[in-house]
Input
Amino acid sequence: MSVFRIMWLMLMFDLPTKTKKQRKKYHWFHAELEKEGYSMIQYSVYGKIFSSTESAKLGKKRIKKFIKTNIKNGNIRILMFTDKQFASMDIIIGEQSIEEKNEPKQLLLF
Amino acid sequence: MGWKIIHLSKACKIKIKSENLLLYFYEEKQEIKVTIKDIDFILFDNTQFSITGKTLELLAKNNIATLFIDEEFTPCGILTPYFQHSTMTEIAHIQISLTKEFKEKAWQEIIKSKLINQAKVLELYRSSKAKDLVKLSSQVQIGDKNNDEAQGARLYWKQLFKIPNFKREQGATDIINSMLNYGYAIVRACMARSISASGLLPIFGIWHQNKYNAFNLVDDLIEPFRAFVDIHIKILRKTYTHKISLDTQLKREIISLLNFECVEIKGGISNIPRAVELFVMNYKKAMIKDDNSLILYPSIKEMYFKYECL
Output
């Protein structure tokens, strides 16, 4: 599968965590994102990979609807780009997790 | 439906964490998460793993083709999801009451398609016998009454591997047969998954009526896809001539066939899992409308293998 066809959706969010209720909501949102197939790239930055542009668009629509119905305040952004662009990302400090490296691979061998 | 293929050969523990697969490898003491919605096929290539009930449930619910392997490393089990389809009973009734004409016509077309694909494989290898197979494919009768399939096979196997006394067998232990069996088992698991996901019962076949076989329909519909495995194995044999037994590296090479975009179906190009799904879907449509012409048959995309066959 071509690196130009694989698409990433990157979700970046700030949610208020002042009260206990808000923190609960934050953790709930994290769990829901994981269930949806998003994996944490770093705190408050989540990524999910799609095999084509069409499915990525569909995924975007889905997550937008989910967020709009469940989250009231905060700051959430979403970005779509190709795997080629994702791979060209420079990592200044820190390192990629195994999951992140595995994401674009079509054949996972363990 | 996913697009990732997982081949597990290390000892591990498999569980679920927030609806995603979590693999724990004992040796490296390492945990790896894989998104379950991205997975298309899981091959357990050893028996040293433990799996939780929830994992099996989610594997079935997400229609993931799952293949288990026994002590001798031969595929021994497929996970077939059931009761996923809303009109299951209706489809089962149609399947049981299929007319003899429909079945025989479908079998004729399947054998025709199989012979054409086999001819293409020989053609890619510049064999002079390819023409004979094409000729044979044009004279297949309704229900394959003349048994052209067997005649074709006799020609085909002799030409393909050019080994005197080569005999294609299911239980054989020589390297070529075991490679072929492994490849077929993988495609068969894909087929079984697509069949049960579309609500068809794999028990009621078109031609295969073996009372001891629970996958009669799978064994019927797989026929046109066998040639893809054959050509892949033939190409692999060129690189791994010295190998005498099936090892992990070879198995991984075989399973990579599923990623190749080498099937021409419905005017487009697709990989094997997707083509199998399309084929089954169209077979179902044809079955419901009782119209054989709706079935679409896969053919080999010659350009894909052209340069590897030289």
Observations:
- DSSP finds eleven helices and eleven strands in chain B.
- The CA atoms of residues 99 and 227 of chain B lie 29 Å apart.
- The first strand of chain B starts at residue 4 and ends at 8.
